[in-house]
Amino acid sequence: MATEKRHRRHSPPAATPTSSSNPESAVLRSPSHPPDVLPDIASRLTSLEDFFALRASCRAYRALIPPSRGVLASQSPLLLVALFPSFSEALFHLSLRRLHRFRLPWGHHLPPSRHTLLYAHGYLVTATTASSHYPPRLLLLHLFSGVQIRLPKVPAPFTRVILSEDLAVVLFLPGRPTVQHCHLGDALWRVVCADAPDVVDDMLFVDGTLYALVNGLRLAIVELSENSLELSYLGGDLDDASRPAGELFRLGECGAMCCLSVRIMR
């Protein structure tokens, strides 16, 4: 009797569901989450935790909903912040006041072999840490997918960097006429200059258009080509009466429009 009970206990159930040797095909056949609606579901999630929990459900989900701009459309903007005293970095969710920590591939080096210049469109723009060898090497790292894009050696010094949605990188020194730009697939940086006496004080991509703050307070649209930099000014010259009060002027974005931000020094 005992033998019979043991035999029954180890026997398979009477109705065993048919299993597939390929787990991805089994998930794709599931009626609860048709594959064609998964990107739409992911694009409506407002929490990074929910998004990555959905991707972690199975390998098929990870393939169908990559961490791209479209499927992250409903995510709130995140700010890159530096943490002290660890000198590490994290993303800060403004409305939830929550930190999202991450590990960088070079984070185990002391001191770090790279430092961050900019965070935009999901990418960190990083440069090799300053040392005796120059020029620095720039690399784009997508924080959510891990994709790395290496750029050519930078030919001239710079202090500011901006990034467009199609991953065009622009470098410049405020108060100088020289601008460097590089696009995906370029073997070299292109170095162009504004016509004298124009100098570039700030630059910003807004909705695919490159804007520049020129000669202090003149706003212009910038067209970059392989050998030239063309400025199309917006509005007339500012006189002393129309000049806003402030000491530091920078370009910003609000509602897909370019705006001027001013810091008043006291």
UniProtKB/TrEMBL annotation:
Domain of life the protein comes from: Eukaryota
Low complexity bias locations: 12-26
Coiled coil: none
Record-annotated KIB1-4 beta-propeller domain positions: 92-229
Signal peptide: none
Matching InterPro entries: KIB1-4_b-propeller (IPR005174)
Region ranges (Disordered): 1-35
Compositionally biased region (Basic residues): 1-11
Protein name per its UniProtKB record: KIB1-4 beta-propeller domain-containing protein
Classification of source organism: Eukaryota, Viridiplantae, Streptophyta, Embryophyta, Tracheophyta
